Amino acid sequence: MSFNVKELNKYWTDIYFHLHYPHKEKITHQVIRILQLVEKKPNIGINEVACYLDVSHNTASENVKRIIERNYLMKERDPSDERKVILKLSDIGREVLQRNTSLDENKLTDIWESMSSDERSLVESAFKILRERAKNVPVD
């Protein structure tokens, strides 16, 4: 059996399409990317956001300012360097990120419970392996 990246991507997008939460907020993809960055990487500041999005510091700063105004992010001073501001997800931001990037846990539970223990083990192993390998891919 040959590996087909396009097929794997289709599986992934089909899974997300059928199992995502209903979207409640009007939110841009860029806002989601910023929230994900803050969730996944510790001690993120405006400079890291600008580099990640490949935008100017001013653009990143304006985007973050609007996200803070929506109460999705908070600013804190870095305890090791008071000059640096680090970004943290608020509880609301965490919920918004969950609804806009995760699979609906009720739907997923229903599917999980319909699987045999061998199927569950296979799916869990495959996702763990894919996640660990994904962590080692350089960020563009």
Automatic annotation (TrEMBL):
Location of the HTH marR-type domain: 1-132
Gene3D superfamilies in the record: Winged helix-like DNA-binding domain superfamily/Winged helix DNA-binding domain
UniProt keyword tRNA processing, yes or no: no
Membrane-traversing stretches: none
Keywords: DNA-binding, Transcription, Transcription regulation
Pfam family of the protein (one): Staph_reg_Sar_Rot
Stored PANTHER family: MARR FAMILY REGULATORY PROTEIN (PTHR33164:SF89), TRANSCRIPTIONAL REGULATOR, MARR FAMILY (PTHR33164)
Protein name: MarR family transcriptional regulator
Organism: Sutcliffiella horikoshii
Taxon lineage: Bacteria, Bacillati, Bacillota, Bacilli, Bacillales
